[in-house]
Amino acid sequence: MTRRAWRWLRDSTWALLAVVVLLAGGVLTWLPIPWATLANRLGHSLAIWGIFRGPGLATLLGTVLLAMIVVARMLTWRRQRHSAEKRRPAVRPLRWWWVVLIALVIAGVVALALWWLMGLAEHSLPKDEPKARIDAVRTALTLGAGLVGVVALVLTSRKQWLAEHTQRHTESDAAEQRATELYTAAAEQLASDKAPVRLAGLYALSRLGQNNPTYRQTIVDLWCAYLRMPYAPPGLKQHQENTSERSITDTTRQDDDNQPLLLDLAPTLAEAAGLSLDGAEQHQQEGQVRLTAQRLLAHHQSPHWDEHGQPTNRAFWGGEHGTGMELDLTGATLGRWNFRNCSVRTANFTETHFYGLTDFRKSRFHGGVIFLGAQFHNIADFGGSEFHHHTDFAGMQFHDHAFGEVWVRLDHDTPVASMYPKGWTVRETNSGDGHEGRWGKLVPVDDTTPDDAEGTGSPESDEQTQTNE
């Protein structure tokens, strides 16, 4: 038996009902009751009542249909209530009227069996009638005891299920509390002034998200927030430092009495306090921390699709829709960004600065993606990437680029028109990969084209541009 079948058998109410019916049938079979005679008497009574005639059959059919409708409505109402009340208790206390109802049903069954058996005893020989009556009472009581045993078995099973449910609930609460503590500790590590501690926090968050899917989007948001923190790449920072040094030199020439003394004493005081003023080394370490955050982010967004479109990377965080997480890197500074073969739900790269080689090859964006005002300070490669929804490339600036084959879906259901980079437009064509819908390829156009002069244009306007050409 597979694990899924065992889980269904364990949690199914119908399976429990089937077991109860089988047990009851087995108990009744072992009882010394003339079932054939009882069946004949029951059929004779039903015939006398007219149940097999037209009106009786109509009444019976109507009763059965009414019972089926009531049961179906109750199941539907219960399912809707369960969906609406996600936080309601999974187990309800046993109502007192259920106990009374079960007792009345058992008493009724025993009384009915006793009545039938007494009727059979009346047709026995006069000398055997007392013994037959005693046997009838004994059989009826045995039947009642069997039914009570079945009820006791059901209650015992329910008690065991309640104990297991309580244990699972306790373990779930403990695991949730443990995950919260680990997340808090890892987030505090990211606030450390030591690079190794921050690296440990990043890897701790990665391990936490791998074992707790509900924390994955929160962890991705935290990584993105860390990358959005102000940061200057080494080359840009060196340029800023040179500019600052020239400014300090000019100021020093104007005030030669006090400033040299301060510059000479600062390193000495730092050494006495056990501090380090090596800002270049700290900046380099911070760069490594940010690269690690970028690599972890890309690693958990790489599905490694197989030929059936299923992810093979166990570290892939598919999110709620199975297509990836949501990224918000607005205004971030990214260096050597490698997002090749990655898949995300949505992404926001508004005014993001990309330094070094930027690799978006064969990446998939299943939701909206925004590159509004993004700047690429080196080669940007988008070869083979796919945009399945609204795209906004308005205001992008390239120092060098290699778009390659970029595919954009033209029939997405958003009313907002897509915006393409300056000098580029979309030409509708068949992707040849079996994708559904209408697709187009991002192709360069003349910069003097009216629709593309500002780097904007919807798919419809781009198609018109290609037609005019």
TrEMBL record:
Coiled-coil ranges from the UniProt annotation: none
Transmembrane helix among keywords: yes
Transmembrane region(s): 12-31, 51-75, 96-116, 136-155
Keywords, comma-separated and alphabetical: Membrane, Transmembrane, Transmembrane helix
Disordered: annotated span: 235-259, 428-469
Gene3D superfamilies: E3 ubiquitin-protein ligase SopA (2.160.20.80)
Pfam families listed in its UniProt record: Pentapeptide_3
UniProt keyword Transport present: no
Domain of life, per lineage: Bacteria
Biased composition (Basic and acidic residues): 238-256
Matches recorded under InterPro entries: 5peptide_repeat
UniProt name for this protein: Pentapeptide repeat-containing protein
Native source species: Actinopolyspora mzabensis
Source species taxonomy: Bacteria, Bacillati, Actinomycetota, Actinomycetes, Actinopolysporales
